[in-house]
Structure formats: structure tokens, C-alpha cells
Amino acid sequence: MSVDAKTAVITGAAGGIGLAIAQRYARDGMKVVLTDLPGDKGEAEAEAIRQAGGWARFEGLDTTDEAAVEALFDRVEAEVGPVGVVVCSAGISTGGMPFHEMALEMFARVINVNLFGPFIVGKAAANRMIASGTRGSIIHISSVGSVLGVETSPAYCTSKGGLGMLTKVMALAMAKHDIRVNAIGPGPTWSPMTQASLNQPAVDMMLSRTPMGRFGEADEIAGVAAFLAGPDSSYITGQTIYADGGRLALNYVVPPRQAS
């Protein structure tokens, strides 16, 4: 970890990729503050990290509530210490229909969580890192959907496309403060959200565009997040690292793999 990366705040950390990142950071010796919508699961996961020997606490948080986000960072700084790493992993998806069939309210809800949320969290984190002189790292969880369109996911893909540009402009503004801003763009990755939304035909279709022939695991994305939090990525900012099993490099499709 980098010199100033002692405390991390991770949104959307009650499950999936966010939880895997919190667990990895705790194993690496960081104090981790898991945030998610209020509920028992987040506290249970924080307790599991503590039982495993790590330092963790859970805070219920709606990342679209700017006042609540500001209060959270004030509380963490006062009670834990300056935040060196922030991971914006909270996100939602409402696939299943093309744009002309989607209600404006549904489209706006996804944009609010997936794009406004990282803006609000990133702004709160950046201002405090600047004030404390912390050499921080802000990491967004994006998607290959930021550059690959999906007909039935107009809101999700649009939100992730916007997140890619938000990452760049944040990085440019923060460079003079030694605060790095990057994103991770997972390809198909097993998480509660994907498991709940995909049937076997959808899985087969996604694997037909994935040269490595499998879904990623949340722990593999957490490894990229550990890299972006640490000194080995000290000259990387404004980038999206795509952990996608080769998906973006592929022009056509791959043949089905025979069961061994």
C-alpha cells in the first residue's frame, strides 16, 4: 500500500465486488469502512472481517444523499483518521428493455446511483484529501459496458460511459494534489447482481464474447483495486483498467468450449 493508504472507504461493500475489495484491503493491513444501504448484511460482513483479524466497520449510506456522504467522511476522519483510498462500487442495473420502452424515472434512478453517486463521494473524498495533504487514490468500478453497448441496458451503459469521462476529469483536477483517480472495468464477473439477473442462455451469450471462456471472480477485481491503491500504480491516473478476460480485444465470437 502507498504511504497514505491506511484507511479506505468502500461503497456498495455489503456484497459482490465491493465486499471482495474490502476483504482484500483488510488482508493487506488497511482499516476498511464498508458502506452500503442500511441493513444487517453489511454489519455481518464487517464483523467477519474483524473475526479474521482485520479492522472493519460498517456504515449505512445512500451515496446519492450528499449531506449523508459529507457526514460520513467527517465521522470517519474524526474517529478513524484521514481516508487514503476510496472505492466507488455502489451500482444498480435495470436491464431488460430498450431505451424507447424505459420510463424516465427508471433511467434517472440508474444515472443517479451509478454516476451522481461517484461524483458526490469523489467530491467529498477529494476535498478532505486536499485539506489533509493526503496522497490518495479514488477508484471507480466501471464496466466493459462503458464502451460496449447493450441494447437492453441503456441506463446502465450510459451511466458507465459517463463514469469513464468523470474518472478522467477528476484525475486531471487532482493531479496537482498527488491524488490519483482511476477506474476498473470488469467484464462478466460473478456477483449477486449477475447471478440474480442472468439465465443460462445469457451466460452462454456473454461467454461467446469472452476469449478466456469464463466469468471473472470478484477476488480478481479486488486484486486490480489493490494495485491501484498501492505504490506500484503511483504514475497511473485517469485510466480505466479493463479486467475482462479479453472481451474488448475480440472482434467476432469464440467457439463454444467442449466440457472436459
Keywords summarizing the entry:
260 residues; 7-stranded parallel beta sheet; 7 strands; globular
- The helix fraction, in percent, is 40-55%
Could you tell me how far the N terminus lies from the C terminus, measured between alpha carbons in angstroms?
Answer: 40 Å
Shape: globular
Q: What's the total number of strands?
A: 7
What does the main sheet amount to? 7 strands, parallel
Give the integer mean of the pLDDT values. 94
Count every helix, treating DSSP H or I runs of 4 or more residues as helices.
Answer: 8
> Strand order of the main beta sheet, please?
3-2-1-4-5-6-7
Rg (CA only): 18 Å
| Beta content | 5-15%
Poorly predicted regions are none
Order of helices and strands: EHEHEHEHEHEHHHE
Determine the structural class based on helices, strands and strand pairing.
alpha/beta
Topology:
Layout: E1 7-10, H1 16-27, E2 31-36, H2 40-51, E3 55-60, H3 66-79, E4 85-88, H4 104-132, E5 137-141, H5 154-174, E6 180-186, H6 192-197, H7 200-207, H8 218-229, E7 240-243
Parallel strand pairs: 1-2, 1-4, 2-3, 4-5, 5-6, 6-7
